Amino acid sequence: MAVLKSPAAEEPIEALLDRIQPRLRSTFSRFRIPVEDAEDLLQQSLLTYLHKRETIHDPERWLLGTLKNRCLMYWRSRRRRLYRTVDTAILESVAEPRRPAQETADLLHDLESVVANLPTRCQDLFRLRYRLGCEPPEAARRMGYRTSSIYKVIERCLAALTRELVASGLLEKPSDA
Question: I want to staple 150 with a disulfide (CB 3.0 to 4.6 A). Which of 97, 121, 140, 162 is the partner?
Answer without folding.
Answer: 140
